[in-house]
Amino acid sequence: MSNSMEWSIRKAVKEDMGQVASLIKALAEYEKEGDEAELTSEDLIKDGFGDRAAFECLVAEEKGDVQGMAIFYPRYSTWKGRTLYLEDLVVKESERGKGLGKALFMALIEVCRKEGYRRLEWQVLDWNEPAIKFYEALGSQFDSSWLNGRITFPE
Amino acid sequence: MSNSMEWSIRKAVKEDMGQVASLIKALAEYEKEGDEAELTSEDLIKDGFGDRAAFECLVAEEKGDVQGMAIFYPRYSTWKGRTLYLEDLVVKESERGKGLGKALFMALIEVCRKEGYRRLEWQVLDWNEPAIKFYEALGSQFDSSWLNGRITFPE
To answer: A153 and B75: CB-CB below 8 Å?
Structure first.
């Protein structure tokens, strides 16, 4: 509460990608997949900016530091049309409980309404109760009936 | 076997979208979600062609008819970088067992290799055993630990 006016949400710039990469790594470690998170801040700068940008990023900034972030991009549903996918939403552990996560999520809902996306979608691990509760409190639905399939290259 | 040389895989054109819309509807009905498939062929033409195309589509054609299709688009993983997502792969029920589905899937693997995507990804319903077996025979891995979260607009 005491910090409620000291942070702001803004579009990420290249200089944020070091702190964003740290948050990605922290989330992967929490998800017990730390070794799977292979991208560096240089990869994020190369992939997230310029003509062929593969994602967009919002950051929650407090006193010049990135304390939280959301990475997202458009997808397409053959049932619903254009949707927005939230790839990662992370708030630094020490900065939780101040509303940064909710503010980032509400900013994405605003993007959906403004740009006409029919759905906001994401995934959570089935044991990640804090995340599930966070999203449920914001009016979300969860569906456990789909399996993720994949082939990774090079094999 | 007797039909193995009579079909071909090619990039979809606008004129295919009527048959593609029928295959999307047929898959949604098989998945017991027929009412959720709301898009028309006009929506697919508007969304899948031109500068802001939201997806790509390959079709398996036999004697001038679309007998199967794959719809896909790029995504981004904060662990692996650029990936390719297979939204729908459908072969008309009467045309199964001829290798059309496998040919469409192999064409997507070729797209991944050529364009440098790190992963090919998709989802299947956990009770859809024929699909799971089809993908497993092609070397895929499945992961059941993620829940799909969503908010649909307007609420």
So the answer is: no
